[in-house]
Every structure is written in structure tokens, then in C-alpha cells.
Amino acid sequence: MVFGLFRRRSREAEHKVYCEIVAQARQPAFYTDFLVPDTIDGRFDLIVAHAVLYFRRMRGEGKEISEFTQNVFDLFFQDMDASLREMGVSDTRVPKKVKVMGEAFYGRADAYIPAIESENIEELSAAIGRNIYPDSPEPVAQTRLAHYILEASKRLTEQPTQDLMTGKLDWPDPDDFKDISV
Q1: Would you say 174 and 29 are in contact if contact means Cβ atoms under 8 Å apart?
Q2: What is the pLDDT of residues 50-108, one digit of tens each?
Q3: 87-103 tens-digit pLDDT
Q4: What residues contact 131, with CB distance under 8 A and at least 6 apart?
Q5: From the CB of residue 3, how many other CB atoms can be counted at a distance below 10 Å?
Q6: 31: number of CA atoms within 13 Å, CB side?
């Protein structure tokens, strides 16, 4: 059937994965116990942190997985585009803002991934401070979030790739990290 070639493939699984990333980033504990600013930037940064964890875990898994994660990534930026438009950003400014968000994503990934891979709490905490708490450092909260991120990375690494492609993401409970002190 020729017309089937032009039909858009369902992105249900990719959408579910993206929704799981966003849902985890919106856990109330991050905005209370971890003192992440409950602002557009604070929410964006937590989504980015969780997305970086997911994309880091999925890299190097082959072409099919790469295409899948690219679709999740595309959904992420389509959502950012739609959110900016809903907030009233003009059509001419949206592409520029999305470009800045893309640069922020890659900058954060470049800061977080080496610290995650070396399991360096201090380095990760400092990167979190620069990005999530730029106006008001929160050393205890940054350390808690760094411990959470390392545990999340460990859990994602232990999960089968197929589970991660169906949205079965085993995130740690942020409440388990709220009593960590520096």
C-alpha cells in the first residue's frame, strides 16, 4: 500500500518516555526539600537533568535505539516550542528561544555527564549549583540533588533497554535523599 509509506508513525512509546521524564522532574520534593526554584527555568532545568540521564543511558545502544531516543529528544523540543507559544512568546522569537534552550541542554549535558561517569559528587554538585541555583547557591540542596542524580543514573543503567523504551523508568524517590547533609 503506497499511502502507508506516507503515514506518520505513532510515537506513543516515545511520548510515554517523555511524559515519564517530565513527571519525575515535577515531583514536589524537588521544589520543597531540594529548594529548586519553582519557576520556568527551575522546571526546565529539572527536565533537562532527567533527560540527560535518560539519553546518557541510551547512547551506544544501536541504530534502532538511537532513532527512538532522537524521537524522544524531538518531542522534548516540540514541547518546549509549544510551551513558549502558550506563554505568548511571538512566533518570530520562538525559534531563537528554542535555540538557546538547545544550547542550554547541551551545556548542561557536557557539565553533568563527566561528573556522573566519574561519580564525583563535588563536581556534580558544583555543576548543579551553576545551572539550577545560579542566583542563590544552596550547597546542601545541591549535594542532595547530586546524590539523587547518581542514584538515578545507576538505576537506569541497571534497567533493560527494552523497559526504558516503553516508559518503565525506575527513578529513585527524591524523598529518600532529603535528609542528606553536606
Answers
A1: yes
A2: 999 999 999 988 888 889 999 999 888 888 777 777 777 777 777 788 788 889 999 99
A3: 777 777 777 887 888 89
A4: 45, 107, 108, 111
A5: 6
A6: 16
Is residue 64 packed enough to be buried (19+ CB in 10 Å), middle (13-18) or exposed (0-12)? exposed
Measured CA to CA, the distance from residue 48 to residue 62 in angstroms comes to 23
CA dihedral (105, 133, 84, 23) in degrees, to 10, reads: 80
Residue type, 74: D
Q: What is the pTM of this model?
A: 0.89
146 and 36 Cβ atoms separated by less than 8 Å: no
Are the C-beta atoms of 124 and 116 separated by less than 8 Å? yes
